[in-house]
Amino acid sequence: MTDNKNIGEIIGFSPEVYKISPDLYKNYDVKRGLRNLDGSGVLAGLTGISEVHGYVVYEGEKTADYGSLSYRGYDIADLAEHCGWDGRFAFEEACYLLLCGFLPNDTQFSAFLEALRQNRALPESFTEDMILKAPSKDIMNKLSRSVLTLYSYDRNADSTTPKNVIRQSISLIAKMPTLAAYGYWAKAHYFDRKSLILHQPQKEYSIAENILHMIRENSKFTPEEARILDLALLLHAEHGGGNNSAFTCRVLTSSGTDTYSAISGAINALKGPKHGGANLQVVKMMNDIEKHVENLHDEGEIYSYLGKIIKRKAGDRSGLVYGMGHAVYTKSDPRTEILRAQAEYLANKNGFGEKFELYETVERLAPKAFAEFKGDKKVISANVDFYSGFVYSMLDIPNELYTPLFAIARMAGWCSHRLEELISGGRILRPAYKSVCKNGKEFVSMSERKKLYCEKEE
Ligand SMILES: CC(=O)SCCNC(=O)CCNC(=O)[C@H](O)C(C)(C)COP(=O)(O)OP(=O)(O)OC[C@H]1O[C@@H](n2cnc3c(N)ncnc32)[C@H](O)[C@@H]1OP(=O)(O)O
Ligand SMILES: O=C([O-])CC(=O)C(=O)O
């Protein structure tokens, strides 16, 4: 890799070459971002895994609506309410539901849990050869590389039969917490100069319990902390076929590639700050607001700072208020409602009441600021990423792990979409791109090009 920052300039590279006039999208009726003119997604497939509802279309008009989400027909709010009944953990049950399509009976669920237990440990010397040898500052990068490397440890890595893919899916769901926790400790050790702590995953623990056990130095956690984390995992497990990472998984799957390639691609997509990576960006943005707004009780000052963020004059200069807006949801994201309640509970309990108030204020003011400073009529609200990082911080989870937690949970959704694509998709996903390239250019020899440049310089 070249370290020369000016290499682009030296070789004559200019981003201008890549610019395509926005008008051309209209002229050729090309759906930018695979979106219809009203912002709704272009229909790209069918799914029986989940349903994401955020607006209604009546007589061709899109109208904002309250959001709802169901997994295999079960409302997420209902699943969340019954979370942890009879001592079970909700996330594992949701994984079963998503993968198999129905809620398990006792025998089926016990077999599923046993399979997860058997698959928690990493292959022999994987920790030494992969995790410790090539640490990364970014745990999502580490997770993606780890998943890709697991290919080498699977004797039947390339088979795409449902029987083989369900086996691989269970193995990946079980291994993700260990990969994330060890990746985190490798980063803490090699980059932050902390001690290296590698707790073995415990067979009898749930996924949420194992995460807390492995990421904490003293390995201790309370049943309540595990329940709240379990709930967060449940809420992040699945979100339709069109979300960027699931679609990535489906695109890769449709080429016939192996499970590890398709899933590591999905992890890479989730990492982006406009997708799952937003949960970390929200926390950074809130810290930035706390630092720059003098009076945090002055809503006017907060509002004008949000305006600065949107106008790219503050924050990370992306113009985005992280944790706000959604491709489908308009008036509300059902997951946010549940996470907000958890954030409020933990904040009151742990003395972060003022911080929670700030979150609520930003949540309330951001849509108004968006409408005013962006001049956009789109109805926006807080998405799943808005409160999740705050909840994790109150569970004492390091911020490097916020997006990896999303990936641990979403593995269930990705694997289900991979199975659905393999079983019911069947055609390679291959949309078209209208070419706006000017053809018919005559080849110019090197000596002629030399002359042309000299003439230009003269
Ligand atoms: C798990 C998840 O992935 S949830 C989403 C997590 N992402 C974030 O929280 C990042 C902030 N939000 C966003 O970037 C967007 O709302 C997205 C990517 C989530 C959805 O985007 P879309 O609904 O497709 O919005 P769309 O791309 O149509 O945007 C319309 C305009 O509003 C802007 N916009 C949308 N959301 C925001 C926001 N939160 N802050 C500022 N501007 C926004 C877009 O940048 C775009 O501006 P432009 O026309 O100047 O390019
Ligand atoms: O659906 C989307 O575009 C993003 C999202 O909320 C998710 O993947 O959970």
Automatic annotation (TrEMBL):
The active site is at H326, D385. GO terms for biological process: carbohydrate metabolic process; tricarboxylic acid cycle. InterPro entries: Citrate_synth-like_lrg_a-sub (IPR016142), Citrate_synth-like_sm_a-sub (IPR016143), Citrate_synthase (IPR002020), Citrate_synthase_bac-typ (IPR024176), Citrate_synthase_sf (IPR036969). Pathway: Carbohydrate metabolism; tricarboxylic acid cycle. GO terms for cellular component: cytosol. Keywords: Transferase. It holds the Pfam family Citrate_synt. It catalyses: oxaloacetate + acetyl-CoA + H2O = citrate + CoA + H(+). One of its GO terms (molecular function) is citrate synthase activity. It comes from the Bacteria. Belongs to the citrate synthase family. This is Citrate synthase. It comes from Qingrenia yutianensis.
